[in-house]
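[job 0412] stage=complex_fold ligand=NAI status=START
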Amino acid sequence: MPHIIGRYALFYTECHYNSTTRPVNPVRPAGKLPPHGECNSNTQHTESILFMSHLITLIPGDGIGPEVTEAAVRVVEAAGVSCIWEKMDAGADMVNKYGTPVPDEVINSVIKNRVALKGPIATPIGTGFSSANVTLRKRLNLFANVRPAKTLPGVKSRYDNVDLVIVRENSEDLYSGLEHIVVPGVVESLKIISETACLRIGKYAFDYALRNKRKKVTAVHKANIMKLADGLFLDCMRRAARDCPEIQYEEMIVDATCMNMVMHPERFDVMVMENLYGDILSDLASGLVGGLGLTASSNMGDHGVAMFEAVHGSAPDIAGRNLANPIAVILSAALMLQHLEETEAAQNVQQAVEKVLFEGKHLTGDLGGKATTNEITDAIIRALQ
Ligand code: NAI
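[job 0412] stage=complex_fold status=DONE, emitting structure tokens
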């Protein structure tokens, strides 16, 4: 039985190895191991080794969610990272049972483990329960949604030099869910912008730029029209920029940003924006690098709580047919490995995905191929080895 300590599971096991099969990171042995140089490939060792597994909440979600998250779990395990997955159900099926698409036990599991890998969850349009995704982000206080969009080798797209990251404020704006009917035929929907949330996302964007050796942050706004709301957002971005003189700072109106992203995407580096603009522009960015099936994202909160998921939805049109492209969730899992400081495994997964895309032999339908979800996943696992 493993001991659960914080977000790790620790257990001892007996391990037989030689210099070529010697366990390396990410299955981290705490016992004393002879360095590679001290044993040849024939030397056999047996040792009781302390293994550390990451405890991760796994939310398969709706539609293609279970298929693509299962693919990501297989790839993470093939990359040699020891994980214990705590599987949690959330989504439409939970509403009848619990009255909410996100039962408390899902929230408690993520708070305990601090890391979650999530599949897409469907949301009814216009009526019905409120979005499980918005509920998860709010209840877990996941205030920053980070979506990298980078040209991938071998993927047909309009540009070959895109490498930008959208940092989207995740907690307020028009997503506060504050709407009411003023009189029949007139609805008021409230856009909430607070100094606290803007300063927090501004600081996060500049910290992200510094940590990831980026050069520039672009603040995207519509302060010419929403002078108070977007004016406050801009004021906070300028304060965050003043605290980080190493990073270049610029501002751009959201409509001009759309045009510039389509015409000159290479000019952007890190982009920070409110919730609605971030929702729209991150899909635009996905389109620049080959579509939704390839775009990963992370939702970051305080105290290391983080949830990783693809940008795409539950794709009900292809659900359960082994047709979905799992790459966006696999790349989200690579972001998760990076967050867990499994840097080598994260890079290996990224490179394996790039290799499969470049070879172009095992591509799913959305990428112009005929491979199934299982076939492309198998190809990525082979590319890891
Ligand atoms: P969608 O992203 O599910 O599908 C749009 C189109 O892209 C469809 O033709 C679909 O087949 C295709 N597609 C999406 N992901 C794919 C993949 N991995 N491989 C191959 N093709 C893929 O968007 P849609 O139809 O607007 O939303 C469906 C449901 O998903 C809705 O209930 C929506 O609320 C939910 N959704 C959930 C999200 C989340 O959980 N983060 C994000 C976006 C939508």
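The longest helix spans residues 195-211.
[job 0412] exit 0
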